[in-house]
Give the backbone structure.
Amino acid sequence: MTTRQARMFAIASTAIAALVFLILTVHSHTRFPALTNAEAITPAVVAGKDVWHRYNCINCHTLFGEGAYYAPDLTKIAQLRGDAYLTAYMRDPGQFYDERVHRRLMPKQNLSDQEIADLIAFLSWASNVDTQGWPPRPILVATGLAAPGAAEQPGVTAVPTRPVSPEDDPIAAGENVFKNATPACLACHSTTPGVNLAGPSLAGIASRAEELIASGEYTGEAEDAAGYIRESIVAPSAHIIPGAMYSAGGMSFMPATYAESLSDEEIDQLVAYLMSFR
Amino acid sequence: MRYQSQSVAYWYFAVAIVLFGLQIVFGLLSAAKYLGPDPLLDVLPFDVTKVIHTNLLIVWVLLGFMGATYWLVPEESRTELHSVKLAYVQLVLFTVTGVTAVIGYLFRYGTGNKLLEQPLPHKLAIVATMLIFLYNVGMTIRKAGRFTVTEGVLVLGLAASAVLYLPALFEFENYTISIFYRWWTIHLWVEGVWMMIMGSFLAYLLIRLSGVDREVMEKWLYVIVGLVFIAGILGTAHHYYWVGVPSYWLPIGGFFSALEPVALVGMAAYAYFALRRAGLSHPNKLALHWTIGSTVFALFGAGLLGLSHTWPAVNRWTHGTLVTAMHGHSAFYGAYAMIVLAMITYALPTMTRSPHEGESYLGYAAFWLQIAGMFGMTLSFATAGVAQVYLERIVGLGYLDTQLKIQVHFLMLILTASIFAIGVGLFIYDFFRRVPLTEVAADEAVELSASGEAQPAG
């Protein structure tokens, strides 16, 4: 090979690769509107994107798996948790997580309510972008239980929780009830999609409750999703989901003791917490 | 130093390595936050230390490229620089831009667009600096009328870097489209045109250090550039996985990313065979360490560790985990930090008056501590990342629960990062204990032959 041939090789391979890349770029532009739901990019979504940039979110979190690796991925967060929770969380992350438990915490960002609403609009838009099936399973922030059965290991007595105070957001207080009621809800229920323990997974419970109420198959007395969740806690057999896994002879396997052992306020908090899973 | 104007390179190198030191300070701070809890949570949170860490990297590596170019071009074109004054203006402008951007980040003044966080005024200042730089280099070459392949590749790489920064000036309403064009800058820099810059520095150093025939080296430099672009341009596709683009980018990314190590194998083989032919005669063996080290570490970090997670079926699980940090640290260090340190180490004995005779053992300590530290950091990120993928993505633990379980790897990270930091500290000390020369020395000891190339092995 001569120098001249080597130079031709460098120029030709660069030119061909660049040409193919440009053609594919042009073609990609014709597909972006459909793949990214471009018509759903409202002024609120654009404003939310600016909030995302202004507060430097990407240098801790990832979105579409891109960013820093110090905080959870947020691609699908708006599909996993409801607006009420996300709003309360962004007002004060310290209400939901404790640095002494997880060794890291999101600092309070002092976002205005408008900024929070815009950011949620942006994250909701992002959660509907076609990411070709990524992530292959939901990326959750904290599942509470280290692993199914871990609490029974010697030396592991309780799930780490942050201490709660009366000023806490009801959702944060409800999470504490979920972990510390007797018997603890999370002993039988995970909040991980698809992970059914002794009881069914409670991931997406708010959306499923709404669908159930609307379906006409519901036999209990509740009128809305929150009412249904409350009823399931205090009277587990009021409506039985068909199947042999969780009930027999019209009686749910879930203990019917919570109406007694939990205060009304605690039940309200628990409902608020469970309603945040959509 | 053969030309007086080459002395501007000293000041570029001086600022570059000070910023390198500062980059490591912010890196250590960020690593400590992985271990947590963070006493600086409300004063200096992770997002701030991290953005400063990555931006300082870009600033000091670019300063290193510019300094090395001002060192290389007079020698290759056999002339003084067109304007020394302009070179100093450019240095001050670029340094002020970089430092004020970093100070701005302390107050959250930035665009929050990963790696391109610089606010618009700073971006425009960067473009202006690049134009001054290219003008000065271009005029020098034009006046000299002598233009080697090595500097041709270098100048094309620098000019293309400036052009590829332009997409960073635009904003898009669609986040997916802004991701698409962000990688035109970042990916086509680091896996495209910066590779040209690295390749030309490598050719320059190998010709000087080993004395191999320039014709042969420059012919293979072309081949390496060709290999870089065959894989690098379409390899951009591996940044387009899972971000809302058409799915044909997945197989394209997989195939062309798998080809990316070929150019890096080429560079390592290039260096190895150059030395085999020449039989080492240049006295600056430390510069040779950095040169060969750069090609080997780049092959390991950029080539192999990149390949380890670019196949779409693998990346589906590893995407957005510490596995990426493993690749990022070793690739940037091997390819770009080390080649700049190689150029500095090569130029240093002739641009300064050393207070001691003979070899600098401090310099060797700096080299080996950095290599060992970075290798350990790479392994720490790798083990943490693999554990994260398993626990979080496969077992299904929450993100925060997983991070608690991999604390031991963060301890290892801090330990090895401290070793690395000592190596960087020694390099900086070794640099500044010498006195810069402003005049061309009459009795250049390193000047081995009239042509400036090393003597054949005796």
In short: The beta strands of chain B are 352-353, 435-436. The CA atoms of residues 82 and 139 of chain B lie 6 Å apart. The radius of gyration of chain B is 22 Å. The first strand of chain B starts at residue 352 and ends at 353.
